[in-house]
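Protein Record: Sequence and Backbone Structure Tokens
======================================================
Tokens: labelled as protein backbone structure tokens, with as many entries as the chain has residues.
Task: work out the structure tokens from the sequence, keeping to the layout shown below.
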Amino acid sequence: MPRYSFLILILLFIPGFVWATPQITGSMNVDGLNVEGYANITYYGGDVANVEVDFGDGNTESYSCDISPSKPSCTVVFRYVYDHNGDYPVDVGAGPSGDHTWHRIGTANISVDHCSNGVQDQDEEGVDCGGRECTPCSQPSPNQYDNPILADNAVEFIWQLVYFFFSVVFYLSILFILIGAYILVTARGDVNKIRLAKKIIIFTLIGFAISYAGRAILVFTVTVLGD
């Protein structure tokens, strides 16, 4: 009889233990860096004001959960965004304050290639470089200087010289025409000054025309040869 009494006590104790321990079930889905899930909590041992979710990366969030003797169960929905790839165990805890019972909902397997999306995100130090997971960002050499000549090859450099030359010709032509005009206006009938002013203006216009005719011939020749 004592043996049976012991078994009877065990059978009575187990329901009481289960009755006073929160029962937690749930599931979750992972989409990229995002995890979303829910947890059902049933507890007959008293009041529960909140449920905690441990996302496995050192962060824990609390969710409201109104459990009382008259309402012994509740459901919480949780959402979270991870910063890095990895496998993170997700645990849900519920129970009286300071005495939570924890249950593992699952493991968030985060695997996202953010190192090739053309955006500086997460802990990247540059676009798709640096941080914990991407390749290091290239650092300029201490002896590396920016090329002051904005040309990738010799042909582009020659074209830059040509355009620079014709720019100088254009501004010098304007300057000499202004000088000729000033001499002409201030000549006051002086034939020599008038003749000098006319020569300056005429020869400036001739030089300007010749230089730009040469530029047009050069552009045309390069265009034809290029085609």
About this structure: The mean pLDDT is 80.
